[in-house]
């Protein structure tokens, strides 16, 4: 071994020893605390759609087209699998559901664009009271008096707007699934909450929703140990780069589900119950209209990332503080 290689070898061994020693742990803790403190002091950069505001807007749109949805002729019944962020078990449940060969669930399609959230936000801030009144009182487009009427504000029928938005999802997600031989379709997402679910249900009255959650301590431990880089809620403005931001994201989604109406078509599954074999897949498949073979998906372990047995004390304190409301809402203890 040459002198240069020998020195490099010694430096490498010394570096490994240093990183594994209490000195290396102290340096990592210092860097982590500095990053977390910076994230703690920054406000959330992204305004998320609110279920309450969206419900108000959708009520107005429904009033403008009360007979628009024909339940008998509308056969589309997509399945939307949503979770409380990353590492919640959504991919495992996605693989379980697609054991029915008739179903294709797309996985976080263009997720970083938060397209579903942007459309939901747009609908939440729909129209001012003045313009809504103009819409209600506008002249009928087929009227012979159009040339002598006030038509500066002339809108198509209310349901034309709904169908136009729905056609985006039909063409983007539904049609490619059908072209590949699937008769059912949907998607799995880790970024959207109750407001987006309400919007999707407005578009697809027969849609079904499955929510999967996992304790935020375990979620973040798996997320952090994965060493994933450049994970975003919304690219490039909102990276998920700290326990603080991860907990805020988890908490927002977890809390949002309490805003859904009692009659909303949703099932909630805990990842912990999934691992313990306590999920009633026969009830789930009957409700979804599928034939699930859960043992096929559960026979293979994919994507395991957690290396530590528990979080550090600072990480636990941060998540306990930032995700307290969501943990309470979903029945998770600290």
How would you describe this protein?
This protein is an alpha/beta fold and 334 residues long. Helices cover 51% and strands 10% of the residues. The strands form two sheets. The chain has a five-stranded parallel beta sheet with strand order 2-3-1-4-7. The chain has a two-stranded antiparallel sheet with strand order 5-6. The longest helix has 22 residues, at 158-179.
Q: Summed up, what is this model?
A:
The protein is of the alpha/beta class. The chain has helices at residues 3-20, 22-41, 51-64, 90-97, 115-124, 129-136, 158-179, 194-203, 216-225, 243-256, 271-275, 281-288, 294-298, 313-322, 324-330, and strands at residues 79-83, 103-107, 184-189, 208-213, 232-234, 238-239, 266-270.
Considering the chains and any ligands shown, give keywords for the structure.
alpha/beta, 51% helix, 334 residues, two-stranded antiparallel ribbon, five-stranded parallel beta sheet, Rossmann fold
